[in-house]
Amino acid sequence: MTQQQILDPQDPSLHDGKHDLVGHLGTGSLIFLIIAASAPLTVVAGGAPTSFAVTEMAGVPLGYLVLGIVILFFSVGYAAMSSRVTNAGAIYAYTAAGLGKRQGLAVAWLALVSYNAMQIGLYGIFGFVLAITLDAMAGITVSWWLCALTGWLLTAILGAMNIDASAKVIGVLVLLEFFIVGAVDFFALSTPADGYPMGGFDVPEFVSSPGVGAALAFGMAAFMGFESATIYTEETKNPRKTIPRATYGAVTIIALFYAFSVWAVQVGIGETLVIDKSIEMGPELVFWYLAETGHPVLADLGRVVFITSLFAALFAFHNAIARYILTLGREGVLPEFLGRTSPKTHAPIGGSLTQSALAFVCIIGFAAYGAVTGAPFEFPVIVMFGWLTNAGAFGIVFLLFITALSCVFFFRGDASINLFSRVISPVLAMIGLGFVFIEILIHFDVLVGAEGFSPLVIGMPTVILLTGVLGLIRGEWLRRNRPAVFDRIGTGHGVEFDNQHT
């Protein structure tokens, strides 16, 4: 086995004080952090109505189950790898171990750009929703970008805190989301519009529908961040057990909860009417339903929790980015100061501050662009959120495909891992993820709100993939010019580790 395959992140000899990630996350806390990225209320209130409106098909609930199965197949090989490759580099480290160091660095570059696109794009919708909520509920008029900067500041503060403390905050926010969605489910199923139709789970109808690809492309956003358990490897109590349990648990909860909740909304509004109402109401659908059924206070609470749902997702993606930067800084691929952790909180302070700085510049940049061009009111949602998050999702699905391939290569010839875990499951995941990747590409114009052909349809996916090419080139340059740094790619450790363990 290689050096990085047998390292134990809990081994005190691996810590030099400047680069330590320290935490005591258990399975439950880790599941909350994973689910926070998928934003349950955001999916049910925003993602599902969008999917109903675009696909005009009843089988949207089934789409979440199908995607859940694909991701569970992915998780089998992924979880097996988590017991062998243990550092906060996650997907990056797995690819370096399975496909090679240059390919690993290509994935690292691609991951940084994709996760940053997802995280920064969320500030657009966060600022917009907070601004219109303050106006509607309190009569306070505030610019979207000031609201976005409020979320940015809170994210920056939490990002500098110890993960155990911030996990508790995120846990409360996620529980609030489950409460609101659970209330919607209860009221919808208590007063069905037309009985309990099961068209949402009609497999033959789903498979034959022309909108099946679009439904899966839109639905994939509901699972973004499920792979993030491995970035907390060094901050968990028992990573070899906790990481697989948290990954399986989170994916299962997400798939079942979303499928059931979206079906419940379908039952409450009506299987046919829900499509028309989704087209008409958009993200207001769930809150409109609560108000229409005599629960206006709950509807207002839901709007507030919708904002905290977006904030929880912002923080979850911020964490992922900060830990990727930390790992690359440790290894010397990025400047060394980016690999430092706070001596007080042991948070990845270098990576966290860097991500916060980039997000700040982007928020101000989009605000300035909107002001100069006289952009419409919906600009932060249509452009900042729509363009960036869909570009990021495109990149992340590709990353998952490459990771599944890495699992196959990593375990080849390893008889200690059963055939299903090392070959069958990852290959099935690759087939499913490959189909979703192609569908996202085909429907990219719809995802970013473009009408007909647009340079965005070609340009944004190309930019995302080109970052991986640049990472590959950088890896080759390091191999030829800085072999010591090249050797550390994917290990999660830097020169201090080399000095202690040579």
Describe this structure as you would to a colleague:
The structure is a single chain. The protein has helices at about 5, 25-40, 40-55, 60-80, 90-100, 100-140, 145-160, 165-190, 205-210, 210-220, 240-270, 275-280, 285-290, 295-330, 350-375, 380-410, 420-440, 445, 455-480, 485-490, 495-500. It has a single domain, classed as Up-down Bundle (Amino acid/polyamine transporter I), CATH 1.20.1740. Helix 4 runs antiparallel to helix 11, helix 7 packs across helix 14 (about 295-330) and helix 16 (about 380-410) runs antiparallel to helix 17 (about 420-440). Helix content is about 75%, strand content about 0%. It has about 500 residues and is mostly helical.
CATH topology: Amino acid/polyamine transporter I
CATH class identity: Mainly Alpha
Tell me how many strands there are.
Answer: 0
**What oligomeric state best describes the polypeptide chains here?**
single chain
Shape: globular
Cα gyration radius (Å): 22 Å
Strand fraction equals under 5%
Give, in order, the helices and strands. Answer: HHHHHHHHHHHHHHHHHHHHH
Instruction: State the major sheet.
Output: none
CATH architecture: Up-down Bundle
* Total number of distinct structural domains: 1
Helical percentage: over 70%
Number of helices: 21
Q: Spans with pLDDT under 50 lasting ≥5 residues? A: 1-17, 497-502
CATH superfamily placement: Amino acid/polyamine transporter I
Overall mean pLDDT stands at 87
Distance between termini?
Answer: 17 Å
- Counting helices, strands and paired strands, the structural category is mainly alpha
GO molecular function: transmembrane transporter activity
Organism: Corynebacterium mendelii
Protein name: APC family permease
Subcellular location: Cell membrane
